[in-house]
């Protein structure tokens, strides 16, 4: 029995492709894994705050010597880290915005990448503190397309960034499903959506 952390980050509601596809995956997964639990977070509609000066001061002050103000400043981050660490698997719906992730998702990453909580620095360099057996499935939505092996691939800063930052905290088993070509005409859009839905069905069976 696994606890899945499902996060959406599109500011759109019913029109969001990443949201509808991550929902499709999670509902199908629940049908076939009824014992699993799902924790849902909607960064698109309920964003977490950007880190600020008191957050930074608190993050770099040991918990036992934090003032009540510093403890308060890092409280939400602590609960987001707790939520992340309590999950066994991750399903993220992430639109591509300006070649990368939306700022809502970046604000979340800034809250959960924490020295001493999700990564540490030791004799062998950086080490992630999230159990490396935990898997992530990331469903992206993109207006364009950035196929591997083409010049356009260099514009995809989204998948490399997410692989790097998740790997940095220990999540190294990361699968991507890209719903792309969404703004390249009906034919390309429908073809890509069909491929993404097929990949989702396969992931439900094999993830
Ligand atoms: C502010 C903004 C920036 C975008 N930047 C890109 C981009 O760099 N590359 C791309 O392929 N599509 C881009 N798009 C298109 C979105 O990725 C596409 O519409 C996607 O479906 C949005 O996700 P959603 O449907 O889950 O809301 C952008 C859209 C917006 C609103």
Quickly describe the structure.
This protein is 40% helix and 20% strand. It has 207 residues and is of the alpha/beta class. Helix 1 packs parallel to helix 7.
Any overview of this molecule?
- The protein has helices at 17-32, 53-59, 68-73, 75-86, 103-112, 158-168, 186-206, and strands at residues 3-8, 37-42, 89-95, 119-122, 125-128, 135-141, 173-179.
- With 207 residues, it is of the alpha/beta class.
- The chain has one domain (3-206): Flavodoxin domain (Rossmann fold).
- Helix 6 links the parallel strand 6 (135-141) and strand 7.
- Helix 1 runs parallel beside helix 7.
- The mean pLDDT is 98.
- It binds flavin mononucleotide.
- The site of flavin mononucleotide has 16 residues, from helix 1.
Query: End-to-end distance, in Å?
Result: 14 Å
CATH class label: Alpha Beta
**Rounded mean pLDDT score:** 98
H/I helix tally: 7
Indicate the CATH topology. Answer: Rossmann fold
Give the CATH H-level superfamily.
Answer: Flavodoxin domain
The secondary structure category is alpha/beta
Provide the descriptors you would attach to this structure in a database record.
alpha/beta, 40% helix, globular, 207 residues, binds flavin mononucleotide, 7 helices
What is the element layout, followed by pairings?
Blueprint: E1 3-8, H1 17-32, E2 37-42, H2 53-59, H3 68-73, H4 75-86, E3 89-95, H5 103-112, E4 119-122, E5 125-128, E6 135-141, H6 158-168, E7 173-179, H7 186-206
Parallel strand pairs: 1-2, 1-3, 3-6, 6-7
Antiparallel strand pairs: 4-5
Helix pairs in contact: 1-7
The structure holds flavin mononucleotide.
The site of flavin mononucleotide has 16 residues, from helix 1.
């Amino acid at each position: 029995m696994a606890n899945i952390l499902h996060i959406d980050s599109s500011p759109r509601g019913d029109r969001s492709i990443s949201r509808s596809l991550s929902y499709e995956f999670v509902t199908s997964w629940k049908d076939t894994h009824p014992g699993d639990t799902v924790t849902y977070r909607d960064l698109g509609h309920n964003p977490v705050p950007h880190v600020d000066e008191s957050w930074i001061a608190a993050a770099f002050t040991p918990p036992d010597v934090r003032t009540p103000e510093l403890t308060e400043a890092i409280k939400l981050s602590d609960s987001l880290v707790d939520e992340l660490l309590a999950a066994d698997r991750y399903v993220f719906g992430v639109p591509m915005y300006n070649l990368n992730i939306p700022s809502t998702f970046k604000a979340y990453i800034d809250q959960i990448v924490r020295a001493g909580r999700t990564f540490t620095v030791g004799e062998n360099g950086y080490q992630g503190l999230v159990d490396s057996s935990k898997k992530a499935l990331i469903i992206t939505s993109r207006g364009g397309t950035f196929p591997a092996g083409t010049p356009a691939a260099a514009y995809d800063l989204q998948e490399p960034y997410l692989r790097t930052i998740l790997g940095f905290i220990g999540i190294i088993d990361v699968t991507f499903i890209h719903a792309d070509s969404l703004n390249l005409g009906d034919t390309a859009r429908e073809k890509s959506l069909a491929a993404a839905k097929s990949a989702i069905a396969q992931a439900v069976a094999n993830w």
